[in-house]
Amino acid sequence: MTVADLMARTRLSRPAFYQYFSDLHDLIEVLLREVESIMHQTANPWLSGEGEPIAALRESQKGVVQVCLDHGPIFRAVSEAAPLDERLERAWSAFTKRWDDVVEARIKSQQRDGLISKSLNARRIANALNHMDTTLLIAEFGRRPQGDPKAVLDTLHHIWTAALYGGQRAARMPRKSPRKS
Model pTM greater than 0.70? Predict the structure, then answer.
């Protein structure tokens, strides 16, 4: 998308547009920060340790999935352009690092509380889970038609609970009886 495309969508004149944004990079950085702020708000139940951890994780992931459903094309554009543009690369790297930082902090907190195994390397797990999320969320919601939000949420939640909490989730889930042939 070009600056002209963005200006046309906002109905601002070029001088008015540049009064707010010095260039396309500036606009993208502002959009990324705004979307990140919304994601942090929606992820707050788990990040802040509100309530039962697995339920809070699902509620947080539900919010993140919704943000990505709403703003997936922004994430896709930035992630695809970042390797080709040093300034976008810095912005994207800073965005992903901040997510790694908050997830690592939550994991360490829950390790101290005995909810997550201390044998896990909190930084590596946070990085792996976040990068997996990024790849899946962009693939599902970064282009049209978009994927099924419930299926994506169920997949992410299953992987995160298995990685972080091990058998705790399985112990709470009702077991299905085997099928009879």
Answer: yes
